[in-house]
Amino acid sequence: ALYEVPDVSVPRYVRVNTLKLDTDSALCELGKKYSVEKDNLLPDLLILPPGTDLHDHPLVKNGSIFLQGKASSMVAPALAPEPGWEVLDACAAPGNKTVHLAAFMKRKGRIIACELNKDRVKRLKETIKLSGASNIVVLNEDFLNIDPETPSYSKVRAILLDPSCSGSGTAASRLDHLLPSKAAGQDTDMGRLNKLATFQRKALQHAFSFPAAEKVVYSTCSINQIENEDVVKSVLPIAESYGFQLVTPFPQWQRRGLPVFEGSQHLLRTDPAEDGEGFFIALFVRKDATHSAKT
Ligand code: SAM
């Protein structure tokens, strides 16, 4: 959305960019002015009171903390690539999850950040610069056109796929109907949702075809079954043919996938009302990966 929606009902989460600052130092610095505590699930996430405006805060300006919600901050740790791995962020801009991956991997290994849209590539590069990460390669390319068999990609061990989606889980989208220019029920536009779901399915299938991929995480900021459980269900046979199976990211998290197929309990959902935003995460792991990246 082009406008900022002040959401007064949910806490303001900030993710500490551990490439630049450790969590305790950020806690201490922010604690001088705000009431702040650590999140109980994610070690690099801090919780501030709802409505706290940090946009001009020096720690935001210098890239020490990112204004990133809790659900969005769960995706890189759900994938949990090991330091030293080669990792692909398939739909990367503006790059919040890309730089989170870099922090998670403690600067070790290489991250390829792929983004189709040229203007958004600029934002991606700005985010990367701000984060201080130096092991990210940016690619202005259609993820679907990347050939998994070429030597530059045949070593990719983990893929983060956060494709374009309806955004129906975001606060901005939920308040859309308040804008006179936007008719209510935008997300009942089945044509648009079907188009998005078609791309999401294709992109997931493409991710499974990377020969050394051991883990693929799929996420959306949508609450629509058609972009979430339905996409996962439809690609499951292909996933299984490549040796991937669904596993449970954050087993202690209570909200799971809608019970529309066997295995949907592995999926993770966040609830817009309870968690501030509606998000979806599916994690696929391959037990018998070829490990062609290993020597
Ligand atoms: N992961 C990002 C983050 O956390 O900051 C947000 C990604 S956003 C939901 C999806 C992105 O995918 C958009 O920037 C869009 O331009 C890009 N995209 C759409 N189709 C693509 C494709 N075929 N190949 C690569 N990127 C694509």
Can you walk through the features of this model?
This protein has 295 residues and is α/β, with parallel strands linked by helices. It has two domains: 12-66, Sun protein, domain 3 (Alpha-Beta Plaits, 2-Layer Sandwich); 72-286, Rossmann fold (3-Layer(aba) Sandwich), CATH 3.40.50. 27% of the residues lie in helices and 18% in strands. The chain contains nine helices and twelve strands. The strands form two sheets. Strands 5, 6, 7, 8, 9, 10, 11 and 12 form an eight-stranded mixed beta sheet that branches. Strands 2-3-1-4 form a four-stranded antiparallel beta sheet. A hairpin with a 6-residue loop joins strand 2 (37-38) and strand 3 (45-48). Helix 7 (190-208) packs parallel to helix 8 (229-241). The longest helix is centred in the last third of the chain and has 19 residues, at 190-208. The N and C termini lie far apart (46 Å). The structure holds S-adenosylmethionine (SAM). The site of S-adenosylmethionine has 19 residues, from helix 4 and strand 6.
CATH homology-level superfamily of the largest domain? Vaccinia Virus protein VP39
The N- to C-terminal Cα distance equals: 46 Å
Shape field: globular
How many independent structural domains?
2
Portion of residues within helices: 25-40%
The helix count comes to: 9
Q: What would the CATH topology of the largest domain be?
A: Rossmann fold
Strand content: 15-25%
Bound molecules: S-adenosylmethionine
State the major sheet.
8 strands, mixed
> Oligomeric form of this entry?
single chain
Alpha-beta content class: alpha/beta
Layout of helices and strands:
Elements: E1 12-16, H1 23-31, E2 37-38, E3 45-48, H2 58-61, E4 65-66, H3 75-79, E5 86-89, H4 96-104, E6 110-115, H5 118-131, E7 136-140, E8 158-161, H6 171-174, H7 190-208, E9 215-220, H8 229-241, E10 244-247, E11 268-270, H9 272-275, E12 279-286
Parallel strand pairs: 5-6, 5-8, 6-7, 8-9
Antiparallel strand pairs: 1-3, 1-4, 2-3, 9-12, 10-12, 11-12
Helix pairs in contact: 7-8
Bound molecules: S-adenosylmethionine.
